[in-house]
Design a protein that fits this description.
Elements (H helix, E strand, L loop, with lengths): L6 E3 L16 H4 L2 H5 L15 E2 L22 E7 L3 H17 L1 E4 L2 E4 L4 E7 L1 H12 L3 H10 L13 H8 L2 E3 L4 H10 L4 H7 L3 E8 L4 E5 L1 H6 L2 E2 L5 H8 L4 E3 L2 E4 L11 H8 L5 H15 L5 E5 L10 H8 L10 H6 L2 E8 L16 H40 L3 H8 L11 E8 L6 H9 L8 H17 L1 H9 L2
Parallel strand pairs: 1-15, 3-6, 3-14, 6-8, 7-11, 14-15
Antiparallel strand pairs: 2-10, 4-5, 8-9, 8-13, 12-13
Length: 489
Amino acid sequence: MPARGTLAVDGEDSLAPRTRFSKRLVPVALLMAASVMLGGCASAIRNGPINIAMAADAPDETGAAPDAPFGNFEDTVVGLSFSGGGSRAAAFAYGVLREMGRTQISSAGRRSPLIDQVDLVSSVSGGSVTAAYFALKGNAILGDFENKFLHQDVEASLRTSVSLANIIRLSDGGVNDSTGLQSWLDENLFRNATYKDVFKRGRPALWINASDIYNRTPFVFNQTTFASLCSDISNFPLSEAVAASAAVPLVFAPVVMTNYADRCKYETPGWARRALANANSPAVLRANAETIQRYRENKDFKFVKLLDGGLTDNLGLTGILIERLGASAPYEPMSEREAVKMRRLLFVVVDAGRPPGGDWAKSVQTSAGDLIQAVADTAVDANVRNTYDTFAAQLRNWNKELIEWRCKLPPDRVQALLGDGSAWNCKDLSFHVVKVTFDQMPDPTVRAKLEAMPTRFKLEKENVDLLLDSAGAILRRNSSFQRFLASSD
């Protein structure tokens, strides 16, 4: 068991994820030059904005939707983030959920599966399929997700061939539009579910991450973000949010959102006001504050266009970083009561990344396909390393700040917050960060198989089984995870 008030972190040197979708789709991207000549053709892309404006009498706040990343009023707080990487990432994330479903812990005086304790799931690209279905179904995901998604050939519903029609679509922004992935997800998985269906469950909070390609910042699908656009997330389809998160440039057309900023009153969040007023604010905080400012103040900013979340944050951690970097009190983004009742926090980062590959370094010659892939991978990998290191450091600091704050609270205030007269130790608080990655698999043969799997929306059954079993085995043997389990006994 770790010392009280400590943060257990592992996996800092894990290999970064990839944004590869399918090698057979690369030739489509290489036809971009030809597509310019066809720019005058009528648009064949269906990606018109479908988000709706907030009702005129709706409150200009976010309290109607459970956006707070934590908040179960129990002593154990659990968060998850799922990386991008097509069906490979979806399967690896599901393998972690399956293991959590098999793991019993004690919390608030009762035993329950760890999967039922999850407060927040944040996701990117392929990982967003698993995250959204989990947020919609809870532990019922363990009954049908394999058959409904992991064993399906989603690519059969997508345009992947090199053809004149696809060149024309490419000239309009991307080969696949809402008639592809979104339609497949609705028909086979989400059944037209919206965020309202997720909000009805209450837990976990769902933060799907895409990239705002104009502002070059993450776009988190939650009501806090939608409020800045004067839009209502409750009726927004889960399939559209997942598709935006997975929209690899050129392979998919951007998902488009309408900015209704001129239709409602809006109060800029305190963290954004403070970031804009302070030239020394953390760069990630200031960039996202400036994005909100552009949404609100630029009358020509009529649409927000979204692509793959991996372009800006392939681990889905930026939203949580902003919550902490922008906090005005040590306990935020929790309430005082939650911060007092909490004894341990577990955050599992599931990274379905793989090392550099291909023939890039084997020859003097460089193919255009390899060059495009290498440029994309370099940007994503550098971002992943910086984001995870910053995230781990922020949780380490938060752990210390919370203990200092708790130990300064007057006894009568503590009892009022606890509400049950129970004994309490202000230092009895430990944070555990667990990173689940392919490179933690001890068997080099298995590890090589995992790393070689393509990031497509199609997997062979034997690869699905290997991903699920490996994710569970890696989580079980993780030392930080074991220390967390010991702390719950």
